[in-house]
Design goal:
This protein has 23 helices and two strands. It is mostly helical and about 475 residues long. Among the domains are: about 90 residues, no CATH class; about 160 residues, no CATH class. It has a two-stranded antiparallel sheet. Helix 1 packs across helix 2, helix 10 crosses helix 11 and helix 17 packs antiparallel against helix 18.
Length: about 475
Amino acid sequence: MTSCNSSTLDPYIPSGNNPWNKAKVKHCHRRLGYGTDLNTVSTGVIAGPGVLIDQMVDNAASAPLREDPFWGYYRLSDFGNYTAENPQYINDFRIETGNLMVSSGLKGRMVFFWLNHFVTELDTYNYSPYLFQYYRTAEQHALGNFKDLVRDMGLTPAMLIYLNGFQNTNTEPNENYARELFELFTLGEGNGYTQEDIVETSKALTGWNLRPQVGGPIIFNTNTFFSGDKTIFGQTGNWDYHDVIDILFQERGELIAQYVCRKLYRYFVSPDVDAMIETNIISPMAQTMIANNFDLVPVLKQLFKSEHFFDEKALGVIIKSPFDLIFQFVNESGFLFNNDLMEAFIYYAAVLGQIMFNPPDVAGWQGDQDWIGTSTITARWALFRAYLNLLFDNGQEERFRSLAIDLSDDSNDPAYITKVIVDHFHARELFTTSDYDLATEVFKWEIPQNYYDDRLWNLSWAEAPYQVLLLLNHVATWPEFQLK
């Protein structure tokens, strides 16, 4: 599809036609994280675009790793009651991960990006320590070096089991991981490799199938390694796993950089990529990646600081994932949540098609338009309504009032209150005043009109929180609300 955004990778310089304002700060936090609160938005306006992006990227790159769960490196024999404990540890880990996604900005966003790039399905191995170790690998390299990430991810027990590396031996080579390494993880389908490269690579990847303890690490076994010459991308030798990674990046580095940068662009900027975007945006990003030996931070900063990223046509063009829908609202509304509510949030996302740690297949969630269908859009409305009611009924009724007060500076003008609430949760202003007018009527609810005309009504009224709830339920059904 043709892109409407013709801006370049040159650094964004605010202007009268493209000003730096709260909407642009929200754009940063919605794309790099899952939204943020009003105070952080105000601080971002003062900081300016370059400083803000540096802060967000540098903070993510230097963020400490999450604490190891006590069960993170368990063998099966370490469990007291595996049948009961394993699902509980997985559930606890999901909740903690959700909490981190809400609070950790770009770090949480990048970890989940890589988990949807180097896909495994938890249901395939269903083992909490392997889940943690897989997550930890993505976390360690989230804003680090892509080559290191590729090397380490392929040796995680979760990946070895999921893509059959654990079954790949010298007597029965399995091509599954070799194929996905090229097709999904580094090059793209049919791009720069042959079936013979897959066959030869699968031989070089043999041997990673020794597990001395059930549920423990999977280590290299020389007895099951295919020893002998293999020819991969024209290079012949007795190659092993680590040689494969080195040869891949040496011989196909430009294709890898182009593929990864295209995927980053589609995820963070727009799903629409045409020849102009390839030439003017993705290719320069790829050159930056190669020049920095596949380090990610310089590439991310180049993209996020660009006039292309901040172009008005870049706002509101990506359909929110279920996690975007829920977590962004939590951050931007200021509602409190605990582990019980987070568990409910994760359940809602699963109903909408995003089961944490269980993508639909090895290609992962494709995102954007795949999130919206005739059945899923109505499910979004219903679940978001249930989500709002859950917040309203769990002791946060007053937060609905304070949200309106904070956004409107305690106005008593229902039209103004409606507009600032609507605009706060949208990437752009609505196209027609009639949409605002209809929303205002919803917000007014059953309060007689004369109370508004005479300025007697205000946000301190007992009915005000419920009025805000009604407005948010109404807004959540709009197409624009599904965009970030």
